[in-house]
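EI: anyone free to look at a 263-residue chain?
SC: sure, send it
EI:
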Amino acid sequence: METARREPLTVLREQAQRVTAAACEDAEARYRQVHDRRYLRHWTDGSGAFRLDASLTPDAGAEVLAALRPLRDKFSRQARRAGCRQPRDASAADALVELCRGGSATADGVRPRATINIRVDAGAWDRGRTRQAETCEAEGAGPIPVTVAQQLAEGARVNVSGMDGADVVSLVSHTRYIPARVRRALLVRDPVCVVPGCYERDDLEFDHWQVDFVKSRRTSLGDLTRVCKFHHNLKTRLGWVLIGGPGNWQFLPPKLAERQRST
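SC: here you go
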């Protein structure tokens, strides 16, 4: 009830999924039930549109989302360059068709390798199963059994980040362009865009929120945060300012930010 009062429906739904998963005594049996009921159905509706409906396990869903993401972003960029405000859902639909055609996301014909992000308690990872209040979930898709996460980590491009008390620990990572420990910490600390009121979680960008990297040359946890593409553009191109730090974020327009600096 407290979550329902404070957070939007998407956050409430995710929290309900975590509570349900934690209350399940046999997570693998629950997972098998979802797998056994999997389906992909299609039909043509009254308007003549081809329609799809699918039910998959969360890890399978995470793989689908990871494969679509670079293609979806390609179509979104093309639409922006053409001066068209294309909804993200439309870009995702184009991405699905392109994926089925065997298309690539880049001009050189090479599709970026899809990466799945998994968040799990370090104790659960070592134990091979979660206990009450522990989490193991595929980002954007929902809770999965620890054994499934471990299987994914063996054969797919997976980043696994975990919490051991208050510390973010190294589990599995294929990331190199930001120090792996820092990136894992950011994935756990900032799972959604940190701008107040924005709960976007897809394709978040890493941002030096206090001092630009060109000036600081640092990539420590305190220097970085994660923001969505829209707010990152406002900050880097239009002078908006992110202040406050974790747990106390504020996102200010240029004039208000300047007044705060002068007081």
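EI: The CA atoms of residues 79 and 85 lie 7 Å apart.
SC: 👍
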